[in-house]
Amino acid sequence: MLATVGAVTGAIAGCLDVVPSGVVYAVDETGAARVEYDDATTLEPNEREANASDPLAAGNLVATFD
């Protein structure tokens, strides 16, 4: 599931924070994993899912379910 597309920036005390252009989540009965998707805005919508990294293989575990 591709959750967000679009760059977000913000300035805090002279520092510029840039977040990835997209985030991909994988959720199942055991938990949720996510991976940043920096190229999301450079692809056509129909290409995004095909070119996204697998959160289970390359992402971080962000929640576990009991």
Please give a structural write-up.
The chain is of the alpha+beta class and 66 residues long. The protein has one domain. 17% of the residues lie in helices and 45% in strands. It contains 2 helices and 6 strands, in the order E-E-E-E-E-H-H-E. The strands form 2 sheets. A 4-stranded antiparallel beta sheet has the order 1-4-5-6. It has a two-stranded antiparallel sheet with strand order 2-3. The radius of gyration is 14 Å and the shape is elongated. About 11% of the residues have low confidence.
Low-confidence stretches: 6-12
Number of E-state strands: 6
Summarize the amount of helix as a percent range: 10-25%
Average pLDDT value?
77
Beta-strand residue fraction? over 45%
* Rg, alpha carbons: 14 Å
User: How many strands, which pairing sense, and closed or not: the largest β-sheet?
Assistant: 4 strands, antiparallel
Q: Give the helix/strand class.
A: alpha+beta
Distance between the termini: 22 Å
Return the domain count.
1
Compute the number of helices: 2
Order of helices and strands: EEEEEHHE
- The 3D shape can be described as elongated
Q: What strand line-up does the widest sheet have? A: 1-4-5-6
